[in-house]
């Protein structure tokens, strides 16, 4: 490919984003694509330091504006250091969380002005927007229970410790995004057997590749 593809995977905590990012990358690699997998917040040396600050349960006094700007700072570094060069090199980038997370978590969840978030996102990423976004959707309490059971998930991070109402607003934010961004965004039911979810994701990816005549 002369120009690469940028795929993002979104969803509430416990929806299986990390697992399915791994599966997506493996699937695309089997098809012969060169794939770069990244995550937010983090993904770079500087970004990982920001991640530690953002997710530390010891930083409970962090205000919403600080949280927002830290996410943007980590994202700016990831875009310039990893995502943009990889896409320009013709690779497929698969990112665990991206701009939609900020709209859902800081916008719908925290109540930060959505117009401000979108403006900051645009300033942060420039023209590096996702070509395809998969939102893994499931009932919020189920996701939070899953998050507690995953390896190393015994102690929730600062954001996971948010109240149920916060996480429910996040889910509604994602669903609202899917309605307004229906060309780019695909919603997949994550409240079922993992193999069924995986097959649904593959169908969306195959449909996207076919529609845009992408060959490895």
Brief write-up:
The protein contains eight helices and five strands. The protein is of the alpha/beta class. It has a five-stranded parallel sheet, sandwiched between helices.
In words, what does this structure look like?
The protein has a single domain (5-211), classed as Rossmann fold, CATH 3.40.50. Helix content is 55%, strand content 13%. The protein contains 8 helices and 5 strands; from the N terminus they run βαβααβααβααβα. It has a 5-stranded parallel beta sheet, sandwiched between helices. The longest helix is centred in the middle third of the chain and has 25 residues, at 64-88. The mean pLDDT is 94.
Topology record:
Layout: E1 5-11, H1 17-30, E2 35-39, H2 45-55, H3 64-88, E3 92-96, H4 99-109, H5 114-125, E4 132-137, H6 140-149, H7 164-180, E5 185-189, H8 194-211
Parallel strand pairs: 1-3, 1-4, 2-3, 4-5
Helix pairs in contact: 2-3, 3-5, 4-5, 4-7
Biggest sheet statistics: 5 strands, parallel
Into which percent range does the helicity of residues fall?
Answer: 40-55%
CATH topology: Rossmann fold
Q: Mind telling me the CATH class?
A: Alpha Beta
What characteristic shape results from the CA principal axes?
globular
Structural class: alpha/beta
Number of β-strand runs = 5
- Number of self-contained structural domains: 1
The overall pLDDT average reads 94
Give me the Rg, rounded.
Answer: 16 Å
Distance between the termini: 7 Å
Order of helical and strand elements: EHEHHEHHEHHEH
Strand order of the largest sheet: 2-3-1-4-5
Measured by DSSP, the beta-strand proportion falls in 5-15%
| Tally of separate helices | 8
CATH superfamily: P-loop containing nucleotide triphosphate hydrolases
CATH architecture: 3-Layer(aba) Sandwich
């Amino acid at each position: 490919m002369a120009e690469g593809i940028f795929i993002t995977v979104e969803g509430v905590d416990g929806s299986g984003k990390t697992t399915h990012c791994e599966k997506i990358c493996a699937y695309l690699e089997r098809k012969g694509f060169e794939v770069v997998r990244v995550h937010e917040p983090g993904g770079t040396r500087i970004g990982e330091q920001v991640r530690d600050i953002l997710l530390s349960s010891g930083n409970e006094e962090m205000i919403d504006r600080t949280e927002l700007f830290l996410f943007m700072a980590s994202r700016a570094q990831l875009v310039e250091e990893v995502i943009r060069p990889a896409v320009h090199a013709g690779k497929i980038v698969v990112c665990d969380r991206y701009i939609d997370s900020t709209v859902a978590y800081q916008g719908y969840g925290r109540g930060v002005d959505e117009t401000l978030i979108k403006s900051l996102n645009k300033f942060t990423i420039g023209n590096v927007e996702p070509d395809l976004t998969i939102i893994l959707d499931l009932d919020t309490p189920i996701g939070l229970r899953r998050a507690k059971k995953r390896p190393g998930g015994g102690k929730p991070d600062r954001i996971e410790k948010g109240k149920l109402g916060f996480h429910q607003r996040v889910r509604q934010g994602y669903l609202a995004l899917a309605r307004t961004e229906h060309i780019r965004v695909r919603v997949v039911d994550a409240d079922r057997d993992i193999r069924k979810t995986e097959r649904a994701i593959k169908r969306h990816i195959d449909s996207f590749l076919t529609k845009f005549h992408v060959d490895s």
